[in-house]
Design a protein that fits this description.
mainly beta; single chain; six-stranded antiparallel beta sheet; OB fold (Dihydrolipoamide Acetyltransferase, E2P)
C-alpha cells in the first residue's frame, strides 16, 4: 500500500540494545485525505538515514505493508515501511494568511430595524 500526506507528529528518537547490537527508531504520524475526512497512520522507522531528519509539515509518500501479530490471544496491527519506502515530496503548502478587514462603520440610524 501507499499513502501521500503530511507529517503531523514526529516523536523523539528512541535507542536500545538488542541481540544484534544497538538500534534506534523514531515514530511519526502521517495525515492523508480519504473521502470526506482526513485520516492518520502512525509509523515507526528504523532507517538511520531518515531518523532525526523528519519534521512536522513535510509532505511524504509512504510505501508500507499492513499485518497483524498475535500476543497473548490478542491481535495487533502493524504498519511496516518498505525498505526505502519513505519519500519526501515538496513541503506542505501553508494556507495564505488572512488579512484583517477594516471594521464597517454603522450607518445613521433612522429608527427602522433594517
Amino acid at each position: 500500500m501507499e499513502i501521500t500526506g503530511n507529517i503531523i507528529f514526529v516523536g523523539d528518537k528512541v535507542t536500545g540494545e538488542g541481540k544484534r547490537g544497538p538500534w534506534e527508531k523514531q515514530t511519526f504520524v502521517v495525515e492523508y485525505e480519504h473521502g470526506r475526512f482526513p485520516l492518520s497512520i502512525s509509523f515507526d522507522t528504523f532507517d538511520t538515514k531518515v531518523i532525526g531528519k523528519l519534521a512536522e509539515g513535510m509532505n511524504v509518500k509512504v510505501e508500507f505493508d499492513i499485518y497483524a501479530t498475535e500476543y497473548n490471544g490478542k491481535y495487533y496491527n502493524q504498519f511496516q515501511i518498505w525498505p526505502n519506502g519513505l519519500h519526501c515530496l515538496a513541503p506542505a503548502q501553508q494556507a495564505p494568511a488572512v488579512q484583517p478587514q477594516p471594521a464597517v462603520q454603522p450607518q445613521q440610524s433612522n429608527g427602522l430595524p433594517f
